[in-house]
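Help wanted!
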Amino acid sequence: MAKTSTLNSMNTSHEKAVQAILYGQSCAKRLKLQLDHPMADGRSDNLFSDLSSRDSSSSSSPPPLPQRSHSKKRKNNKTNSSENSRHDSPDPNYYDGFLWRKYGQKTIKQSKHQRSYYRCSYNIDHACGARKHEQKIKDNPPVYRTTYFGHHTCNINHNQDAGLTTVGDSVNDLENSRMIWFGEDLDQEKESHTSGLSVSVKHEEGSIKEETMDQYRHRGITSHDKDCQNMIKENHQPSPSGSYTPPSSSGSEIDMFDSDLLVEDLDLWDRYDMYDFGLR
DNA sequence: TTCATTTGACCGAG
DNA sequence: CTCGGTCAAATGAA
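Answered by r_m:
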């Protein structure tokens, strides 16, 4: 297929190394900006306040007691565990745009397949209560059912590429039926998720190389990357139109940086997405 | 060494 | 008591 030739033409190991370095520079630069101008925007202190609060709590909190009496309390009362949406896919590696961390796996009585339990990777950092269950429900052809619970309060969705990479049509055809709805939060998410973050995330996704989507979902983004992405996201105000607006030439240093490093090779990342993100 | 995943134990609901 | 959901120690990968 054209995939290999395309990738080979642009994706030598040297280029990848350069991209990785550039991306690392972008993170470092943003961090420096944040440190130099911590109050540049109203939300920029969130990260540090979070970190400091965590530090203080860890240093002053008493050592964990072996109290197991209620530590494993089941949390699914009717209101909390109400199912938000369901998604069936033949692809177990279907990528819904969010990062999940697996916290359990169970054999289900009525099914011969195990069910996996995930919670949002930002569960701690952003107190995000979103969870999902994933289970194979059919063998031939394989169908994997993902059931979503709770709401993403982290507002970090890496799956805005569809609207940004001009693959929306193909997405609409096939993926609309897979759209994940979170009830009344939809508008909020749609707005908050369509920021400049996508461009940066795209950069990173491209550097994931030959990893499978499953590996990417579970391992591809390190905690450092996530922090960096948070920083990037928080430097971009969501576009009121709900679409990505390229940085203007008269923009801030951040904008200039974006245009220099992140947007420059957008086409390459778009093509990456086309191939690697299974727009079948 | 750090961090994500695995896995068995624990818990509450039915 | 059974079952599904969650916790957290153990494990493994990077």
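OP: Thanks! One thing I noticed: Residues 6-37+80-260+269-276 of chain A form one domain.
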